[in-house]
Amino acid sequence: MSRSSFLYALWCLGVLGLYLTAASQGYSPFADGGRTAGAARAYGPTHK
After folding, report:
1. What residues contact 25, with CB distance under 8 A and at least 6 apart?
2. Residue (of 22, 18, 16) closest to 35 by Cα position
3. Are 33 and 46 in contact (CB under 8 A)?
4. How many domains does the chain have?
5. Is residue 17 part of a domain?
6. Between the CA of residue 18 and those of 13, 23, 47, what are the distances in Å?
7. pLDDT value at position 22?
8. Is residue 20 a part of any domain in this protein?
9. Among candidates 45, 27, 15, which has minimal Cα distance to 7?
10. How far, in Å, are 4, 13, 20, 31 from residue 44 at the CA level?
11. Residue 26 has what pLDDT?
12. Which residues form the domain of 23?
């Protein structure tokens, strides 16, 4: 494995790790409410 492919694989693992972290925290950069207080608190939809 060349150095560039190793760095690319490392970058892909980093992106995947950030995605999984955001999914477990319930964070979306496109949501109107922003970040939730924590993963333990679940809120329903607030729009009507």
Report:
1. 35, 36, 38, 39
2. 22
3. yes
4. 1
5. yes
6. 9, 8, 28
7. 82
8. yes
9. 15
10. 45, 32, 21, 13
11. 76
12. 3-42
